[in-house]
Amino acid sequence: MIKLSTSFVALLALVPFVAAQQSAWGQCGGQGWTGATTCVAGYTCTYNNAYYSQCIPSPGTTTTTTSHSTTSSAPASSSTSTAKLNTVAKAAGKKYLGSATDNPELTDTAYVAILSDNTMFGQITPGNSMKWDATEPSQGTFTFSGGDTIANLAKQNGQLLRGHNCVWYNQLPSWVTSGNFNASQLSAIVSNHCGTLVGHYKGQVYSWDVINEPFNDDGTWRTDVFYNTLGTSYVSIALQAARAADPAAKLYINDYNLESSSAKATAMVNLVKSLQASGVPIDGVGIQGHLIVGEVPSTFQSTLQQFTALGIEVAITELDIRMTLPSTPALLAQQKKDYQSVIGACKAVTGCVGVTVWDYTDKYSWVPSTFSGQGAACPWDANLVRKPAYDGIVAGFTS
Ligand code: G3I
Questions:
Q1: pLDDT digits (tens, 9 = 90+) for 153-197
Q2: DSSP conformation class of 14
Q3: Which of 103, 205, 206, 270 has the CB geometry, 3.0–4.6 Å to 160, for a possible disulfide?
């Protein structure tokens, strides 16, 4: 920031195009920006990324004569690493560093170019298009076009594919939730859905989230249509149908809030043990990893080890680390550390096979629409510019 003398300010006032000040929250800099680069009273032009600076409230000041250069070297809110994420993940012994994606995003060519670089992402997951509402919208009628687009993209790019998901309480068509099926009917429906879905992608999927989010946070079972009708048996029905449909695919149960030792993590450990004891196929647990800046659990690594000690693999399947907006250099620096600790925990655990970010860019993150006032959770910003979090991922794999 430069403090301007009173006489220089008076001189500037005679030059209209220089003297104009941007209004609160307006753009005030970035590559190609030709408008005002100073802000109205009480606001400071703040670097966000190479393409965008914004007038945000000045912390505890009412100064009107401050100016902020947006052409100076980038502050600590940019990435500096030149390494590629999947390359460093593989060098650390992992199978992949991947990203979720979604069909509407695939018209964004700049986005797809980054997504399709298999040195950056060695794996992709469809965020929505393999879910029940997308794949069996009416009973017995299967529609795979959205999922096929993403499976074909993975194939073209030489990337692994994670299937997401067979059985979840959410994004269910009403024929499932309101059908009043008895246990025998619903058992056949679950078996047919998972068998047909997994069978359609036979040979193309590295791992399937066969069961998604079966537990409440206190470790009790989620009372959805499946549990209410079939009890816990829906889990083995789905897993057995999936194994029969694609014997080579790794079969996972996936959930959130499994990142520290908790009643929910204990419930998941006990479920895996009981499936193993009954001979039901189970190959992995997905730790989603929807986290908050500054709140990565210190027990993350030991929690991963709790699962791998059962003889199964783990993967971090939906990583993002959100913050209260607006993002600041301090929050971005903490986010970098948080990404590094999560990746470091996976690196340290042999049975942790890979990490998937729940889309790589803030442009397409699910967070702001779900958590009001929060966001900036991904390693690329909304202009597809890498954030410090990117360097945190690299450091997690390399240090
Ligand atoms: O498909 C409809 C479209 O027809 C309609 O016009 C539009 C209007 O809002 O909505 C579209 O559906 C949206 C859907 O994504 C597909 O874009 C839903 O509103 C929206 O709620 C849904 O959000 C998804 C969310 O799961 C649903 O719970 C997110 O994109 C997806 O990233 C998110 O992913 C979940 C994982 O599957 C499981 N773990 C948590 C994770 C984050 O919530």
A1: 999 999 999 999 999 999 999 999 999 999 999 999 999 999 999
A2: T
A3: 206
Question: Which two three-digit tokens encode residue 397?
Answer: 């794999």
CATH number for the domain harbouring residue 273 = 3.20.20.80
Q: Is residue 60 part of a domain?
A: no
So what's the pLDDT on residue 160? 99
Indicate which residue of 136, 213, 259, 318 is catalytic.
318
Which DSSP category does 5 fall into?
A: P
Clarify whether 318 is annotated catalytic.
Answer: yes
The residues, ordered by sequence, that sit 6+ positions from 233 with a Cβ below 8 Å of its Cβ are 187
- DSSP state for residue 361 in the 8-state scheme: B
Name the average pLDDT for the chain.
89
Report how far apart, in Å, the C-alpha atoms of 36 and of each of 16, 17, 67, 70, 205 are: 10, 8, 10, 11, 51
Give the position of tokens 């620096």: 333
Q: How far is the CA of 330 from the centre of ligand 1 (A)?
A: 31
Total structural domains within the chain: 1
C-beta of 127 in contact with ligand 1 (< 6 A) = yes
Query: What pTM was computed for the model?
Result: 0.84
Which band of pLDDT confidence, cut at 50, 70 and 90, is reported for residue 48? low
pLDDT tier for residue 1 given thresholds of 50, 70 and 90:
very low
* Residues spanned by the domain of 203: 95-398
Tokens 């929910």: give the residue: 264
Q: Determine whether the shortest distance from the Cβ of 356 to ligand 1 is under 6 A.
A: no
pLDDT of amino acid 37: 66
Residue 380 φ/ψ, nearest 5 degrees: -115, 145
For residue range 250-282, list pLDDT tens digits in order. 999 999 999 999 999 999 999 999 999 999 999
CA of 256 to the centre of ligand 1 (A): 16
Phi-psi group of 32: left, alpha or beta (phi > 0 → left; psi -120 to 50 → alpha; rest → beta): left
In a domain, 258, yes or no: yes
Q: Distance from the CA of 331 to the center of ligand 1, in angstroms? A: 27
d(CA 138, CA 267): 33
Residue 54 maps to a domain: no
DSSP character at residue 52: E
Q: How confident is the model at residue 23 (pLDDT cuts 50, 70, 90)?
A: confident
Q: Is residue 386 part of a domain?
A: yes
Cβ contact 398:82 at 8 Å: no
Rounded-to-integer distance, Cα 348 and Cα 342, Å: 10
